[in-house]
From TrEMBL:
<feature type="region of interest" description="Disordered">
    <location>
        <begin position="176"/>
        <end position="240"/>
    </location>
</feature>
<feature type="compositionally biased region" description="Basic and acidic residues">
    <location>
        <begin position="176"/>
        <end position="193"/>
    </location>
</feature>
<feature type="region of interest" description="Disordered">
    <location>
        <begin position="263"/>
        <end position="282"/>
    </location>
</feature>
<feature type="compositionally biased region" description="Basic and acidic residues">
    <location>
        <begin position="200"/>
        <end position="240"/>
    </location>
</feature>
<dbReference type="GO" id="GO:0005829">
    <property type="term" value="C:cytosol"/>
</dbReference>
<dbReference type="InterPro" id="IPR005632">
    <property type="entry name" value="Chaperone_Skp"/>
</dbReference>
<comment type="similarity">
    <text>Belongs to the Skp family.</text>
</comment>
<feature type="coiled-coil region">
    <location>
        <begin position="36"/>
        <end position="103"/>
    </location>
</feature>
<dbReference type="InterPro" id="IPR024930">
    <property type="entry name" value="Skp_dom_sf"/>
</dbReference>
<dbReference type="GO" id="GO:0051082">
    <property type="term" value="F:unfolded protein binding"/>
</dbReference>
<dbReference type="Pfam" id="PF03938">
    <property type="entry name" value="OmpH"/>
</dbReference>
<dbReference type="GO" id="GO:0050821">
    <property type="term" value="P:protein stabilization"/>
</dbReference>
<protein>
    <submittedName>
        <fullName>Outer membrane chaperone Skp (OmpH)</fullName>
    </submittedName>
</protein>
<keyword id="KW-0732">Signal</keyword>
<keyword id="KW-0175">Coiled coil</keyword>
Length: 282
């Protein structure tokens, strides 16, 4: 019934503010707690304790059952006084077991008390952070999804659990920011809030970014194509120049060889003529 009263109260509050734009968000306390390392570690330790207590309960139950079985098998052999004595012993053990179960697992038991002690500091931190977020971002209502309030449908864009977790991490690390850093962080947080709450704007912004990226890629592609074309023309020109230089060098070498051959032929001719003239001189 409590959850229905809470839901009716929330709806009535929303109706009273229907004349203006109502800003609503929600958190999931269970999700937040599971993401806090300190809580997870302490919860694990508490579960280990609870398992130990459960084992103790099972041990006591086994002892009682053993006594009951023993009494049932020996009843015909025992006197009435002994039977009564054993029954009283069993009743005492059963009462002790019940008291132990209440002490460990009852409404006011160790498990409930230690769970509350474990959760309360984080809940207090979350409450303060939620208050701060509500004031900064102008929220009218922020609900806890994991509480008694029944939420039949929740749009993910209204979930601010991750923002609360981030603030918890900052508080845990005791991060001290300068005024400039804090301003930049606030601007970043505001953009993330706006993006979360206005998916259409995010979609348009994403499309715009994708167009800019595509345009940039197209420009880079054309620029690369021009570079490749220039490089290809340069390579072609270099190859032509190298071929021309080689051709000229071959012609020059051929000319040198021809000149050398002519000189050699002329020298041989002169030598031959001298040989022919030598007998005449005698």
């Amino acid at each position: 019934m409590k959850r229905y009263f809470v839901l009716i109260f929330a709806l009535s509050c929303i109706v009273t503010t229907a004349q203006k734009t109502t800003k609503i968000g929600y958190i999931d306390m269970d999700y937040i707690l599971e993401k806090v390392p300190e809580y997870a570690e302490a919860k694990n330790q508490l579960e280990q304790k609870a398992n130990t207590w459960k084992q103790e309960v099972e041990t006591k139950k086994a002892e009682i059952n053993k006594l009951k079985e023993s009494l049932a098998s020996d009843r015909v052999l025992l006197t009435k006084e002994l039977v009564n004595e054993k029954e009283e012993e069993i009743k005492t053990l059963e009462k002790d077991l019940f008291d132990y179960q209440q002490k460990r697992f009852g409404p006011q038991g160790d498990l409930i008390i230690q769970k509350a002690a474990l959760v309360k500091p984080i809940q207090d931190q979350v409450f303060n952070i939620v208050q701060d977020i509500a004031a900064k971002r102008n929220y009218d209502f922020i609900f806890d999804k994991s509480s008694d309030l029944t939420m039949l449908y929740t749009a993910e864009r209204f979930d601010i659990s991750d923002f609360v977790l981030r603030e918890l991490e900052r508080a845990g690390k005791k991060v001290e920011l300068s005024k400039k850093q804090q301003k930049l962080q606030d601007q970043k947080d505001k953009k993330e809030f706006d993006d979360t709450e206005n998916p259409e704007a995010v979609k348009k912004e994403k499309e715009k970014e994708e167009k800019l990226i595509a345009s940039k890629e197209e420009r880079e592609k054309k620029l690369q194509e021009r570079k490749d074309l220039v490089a290809a023309k340069k390579k072609e020109a270099d190859e032509k120049r190298a071929a021309l230089i080689k051709e000229r060098e071959e012609k020059r070498q051929k000319l040198i060889e021809e000149q050398k051959a002519r000189k050699e032929a002329l020298k041989n001719k002169i030598t031959e003529e001298k040989k022919k003239e030598e007998p005449k001189k005698e």
